[in-house]
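Assemble and predict.
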Amino acid sequence: MAAVRHVMEFERPIVELERQLEDLKRLDVSAQPELASEIAQLEAEIAMLKDALYSALTPWERVQVARHPERPKTQDYVGALFSEVVELRGDRAYGDDEAMFAGLGTIDGVRCVVLGHRKGKNTTENIRRNFGSPHPEGFRKARRAMLLAEKFGLPVVSFLDTAGAYPGIEAEERGQAWAIAECLETLAGLRTPVVVVGIGEGGSGGALAIGFGDRLIMLENAYYSVISPEMCSLILFKDPQHAAETASALRLTAVDLVELGIADEVIEEPLGGAHRDPALVLARVEDAIVRALRELASVPRDELVARRQARLASIGADSVRE
Amino acid sequence: MPVSDWFKAREQRRYTVVSPGAPSADLPDGVWLKCDGCKHTVYRGDLEANLSVCPHCGHHAEMPAKDRLLALADEGTFEETDATLSSTDPLRFTAAKPYAETLASAREKTGLAEAVVTGRALVGGHPAVLGAMDFRFIGASMGTVVGEKVARAFDRAREEERAVVFVTASGGARMQEGMLSLMQMAKTAAAVRRFSDAGLPYVAVLADPTYGGVTASFPVLADVIFAEPGAMVGFAGPKLVQETTRQSLPKGFQTAESLVEHGFVDAVVPRTELKATVARVLDYLCAQDVHPAAEGAACPVAFEEGS
Ligand SMILES: [Zn+2]
């Protein structure tokens, strides 16, 4: 288990009890014999509380886990799961956006194009990478890499982890909406397998631009949503404080997405979240990607695209009354 | 970033809308309306006869989707499709108030089943599928029904070898249908791709306001993109951009005019010239394979095609 530094709001009661436990343990047990049983009781209580808390996270709590700064990031997955990695940089029009990763990499002996939103691990990295929120250049780089994948018959593996496309002045002036829409159109007809893994945040159109394909695999605490719970709360309640309520209403969890027919598979995380045991999570994600790529390898390209489009066409079709 | 903040976008606008359905309190019976562009009082009949464009200052007011389509279609040719499609509230969404109530009051207010109107028509003699979004219906946000109607419109146009002309206005994806709404962006983009691969023409007209997940899907994938004068178009709403960047926004930010300057829109076209302009583009792009331009003039037209 990794040592975790960042404490989430809903974990505070447990962290407080753990602090009390540490205080008790510092006392001299030989002087106070009743202390030993008190410590044991508190330890048992904490274990029970943890189990109860983490095994039944609310959607809003999952969103916080998805945003946990120590959660494994795109670069961790790329580094651990892919060999012979070659990064591809630049959109060939304006610049290189470090909020979006694109590259070549090999997994299970399969050469792939790898995409992913790239958050930083510290403030310096996060400033360079704009906290994982791409500008149009990022989406255009991703699209360039998708077309390269198609041209050379390489499958695409894409990791989602963004609060959303960056809402900035220059991003708008350089055509954020155009860049995203072109990714969607390209993915919709891309003649090569596309495997998407939701590893953290799936923020709206900025996630969707590299966020649909032939398989959508979601980590248990990853979320994928049309709007952030806070913004949804701000619009509907004129107040961001109802995020817990809107997080539930939006049906944004991994399990919700499977029920809605959007995601295919949920990968179980260790108790407390992926950051508690990154190695375990990396191994599970590797297994899921390898299985998906093997399944998709034999599907003829025409059928692959037809199936992808038929699935898109069916999304929401049930909720339409003639 | 989520950008369904169209409430905020609306507040940010430099001018407000003359709504023919909602006259100012000091004017009797909606016969006279005050233009928020120039503050002139305008006779409602005059405004409507001029496609809701102020005769004094040229301000383009909001317009019901059906009126837009009737103005684009050759007279008597518009035939609506999928008119009764409506949402079943797939998430049983409740926050602040039940979505079902929001839907019911939007239906009552507009007389529409949903936020987009589609249909077949001729435009300058060219067989086309037309669509227009109605901002009065929950900000013309795109949920499952809007996505389905847009996708059907493109698929129908592909099957019947028609052009597509779409007038957009929307706050973005409809948050009350959650991820099902977000996926409509991909679904409509896929429909455009199928349509476009068939070699048929698509003209989009961006009207005020077009934002968020709607802008970033089917509208900007058109072969030719026009925008109405003064229309605000973008991904993130201006208020969100300002709050995020803490910078003051450049003059003309996200206006149709600035989008032409930045290279994202072909032309700003006044509503009164829209039909003629769209028809001229379709003259160039329609059915050239079927009708080689032997006469060197506009391509001939299949008037007799059934609708
Ligand atoms: Zn005026």
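The pocket of zinc ion is lined by residues B 35, 37-38, 40, 54, 56-57, 59 (CB under 6 Å).
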